[in-house]
Amino acid sequence: MDGLKRGAAVIVGVAESDLGAVARDMSPIDLMAQGIHRALADCGLPMRDVDGLLCATAQSRTSGLSLAEYLGISPAFIDTTILGGSSFMFHVAHAQAALQLGLCNVAVIAYGSTQRTIGRRQASVREYNPYETPFRPFLPSTAYALAASRHMHEYGTTREQLAAVAVAARQWALLNPAAWEKEPLTIDQVLSARMISYPFTVRDCCLVTDGGGAVIMTTAERARSLKKPPVYVLACGQAITHANMSSMPDLTVTGAVQSGRQACEMARLGPADIDVVEFYDAFTINTILFLEDLGFCPKGEGGRFVEGGRIAPQGALPVNTNGGGLSYCHPGMYGLFLLIEATRQLRGECGARQIEGCETAIAHGNGGVLSSQSTVILGTQATL
Amino acid sequence: MERIAQSPLAVYQAHLEKGELAYQWSPEAGKAVFYPRVICPYTGSDRLEWRVSAGFGAVYATTVVHPRDGTPYNVALIDCDEGFRLMSRVEDIAPEAVKIGMRVKFRVHRPGGDEPPCPVFVPLETA
Fold it and tell me: Residue A246, Cβ neighbours under 10 Å: how many?
């Protein structure tokens, strides 16, 4: 990562596509295109300027081809890296590399999913693993539940502490008009909801929605003439530790330790310098693990850290201010939405959920079953 | 170059057919390897020896899956004493009674039909 320059690449446009339950027969590529159209409008760039294309979806084997054809472009740079829900954080690093090298000038990162409309099983076909599938793990929930069981065993983390993560996410979602969930949630409601894979009830698990969106990146130089202030990519870090849960080295420690360390070194910032935190909360244990592994609290303290509304609105540390995958939207590969929310917070566009004086943000993506971890640190011009 | 006559999975399943839990040993790394592979993930070497586990281990992590229709069941990660970990389940006790650290012993499960046998575990005290 030595080659990436702090602040050389910027995010200039962000947008969601339609979210939640989209119109019948909409395709993932329709949603990508809608997101790109809106994100280009957000920054004022025309489609003809797009010469870098990055995308991922579980529903198209060659989404790069489909999307380029659909948009009517022949991009000079294309990347369809797919490593689960964190793919879009990897895309940010790859787009920055391409922008720095002059392989492209305007890069679009896009995502689309219709998993709610067509059913999760159709949207994301699981590969048969002869060493795991016979035991019928309900994936991904069971894999994360195993990690939670280990965290509870080693550190005394409780189901109530896990539930506090879901409750905080819901409180944020109630401040976000785009969020799927509209009703308040209590710790008791989380605990008494339908059990999925112990210790998780359905309220410990992310939503199953449709959705998509896009992020437009360019060089800091090019951004000067655009209509909104750019959001600077201060750092990227990434780590892959395994693919399947039975091969994860330690179920209580994720690759976020490495990805976070890399990102903090490049950004020359530490956890105490971060104003707003966006974590990939596929399950309630994720937020606890990433708070620990990215250095917001010591290992094992994550459960106690989230108690008492500390990560909820008005808490000491704002985490998942859009409502997260737990209460805002989760179309299967959620990482792109972390970048959208972090960018909006840094621009001061978040209305009732806006964090005052927000200059730095962390967007941490998770993919697979805690398998791929990718950290992006963003900042305003004041942080350069 | 020598052609591989039998896949790592086929060797593993042939052992299970005989009621054995097989794993690989990397002499260069001095470590057990699981799942079975063509090359060692620690060294990159293709020198991997097959060994048969004594079948003893401990529960490393555990959950109970609650299907929408049907009976809840256990899924666990088991650390075998030879130094490898695998996904499995603990049988003969209630799924929620499976605890981390519990000593367990391997037993072969034969689902029948076209499905190959697979390794499950039972608590050591009742084995």
Answer: 25
